[in-house]
Specification:
Elements lengths: L18 H26 L5 H23 L11 H23 L4 H8 L2 H12 L6 H17 L10 H24 L5 H19 L7 H4 L2 E3 L7 E3 H23 L5 H8 L1 H14 L5 H19 L2
Antiparallel strand pairs: 1-2
Helix pairs in contact: 1-10, 1-12, 2-3, 2-8, 2-10, 3-7, 3-8, 4-7, 5-7, 5-11, 6-13, 7-11
Amino acid sequence: MSDASAIPSEQAPPYERRPALGYLMVSAAAILFAVNGTVAKIVLSTGISSFRLAQIRSTGALLGLAAVVVLTRPQTLRTTRRELPHLIVFGICGVALVQLLYFLAIRRLPVGVALLIEYLAPLLVALWARFGARETVRRHIWAALALCLVGLSLVVDLWSGVTLNGTGVAFALLGAVSLAVYLLLAERSVAGRDSLSLLAYGFLFASLFWAAVQPWWSFPARIVGSDVSLLGRFDASLPVWALLIFMVLLGTMAPFALIVGSLRHLSATRVGIVAMLEPVAGAVVAYAWLGETLGGIQLAGGAVVLAGIFLAQTAR
């Protein structure tokens, strides 16, 4: 929940904290999310809407995670009436709304600007820790947050005269709040529940939310069987269903599990800071795959973000 442990010393977690493993997990998740962003661009070019794509990701992840948990550790799915509201909030506010608000934001803002605003979430987590939970947040963490936000503003080229839409900014800010809620609720939950069962419940309630927003009987099934060009530097095409499977397995299940698992080893503030690697990795992937421009200012911004992440890691 902050740079300090969210768990009182007399209730120490029944697992060993391994910060190095936590940083590795978040970094891997950020890279997978970045690759997923480019794959999503290709899938969206077929006519599948952003909302429908979020529904596919949530429901596919639910089926995959539920199968894994049922086959390996079904006892972890047990819950109580007291815990159920927490899981519902986690699934809707912390999983579904992050995607919904992001998609609403990018309809009105450049993707990079929307991501920059959404990644105010780690700052919100740190502010909550300092003033809401009354915990100590070290100066190195504040400095790391400042460096990462400045670096991201360079990566998205915020200083080139971007025109901001007020409604889009509002949606992006709400998305930042939702992402902060996700990190805080996940950090609290992993103290008493394993990561996979937590995510299974999260995606269950997210999937129910999306099913209510857009019923499955209106799903454009014909698109799934068609082929789509991989664009950019790849002179090839793949079936849409193959890309959707990639997005469910490596673009959703794996990175979400890595993020939640990392919260067993790192505070929510540190996880949020390292997750800021995603826009930087996304720019690199878009350059390598789609041939998008990657200028000197963006490279400098990426270096500043990395410096901020390193500074966060050195804070003890």
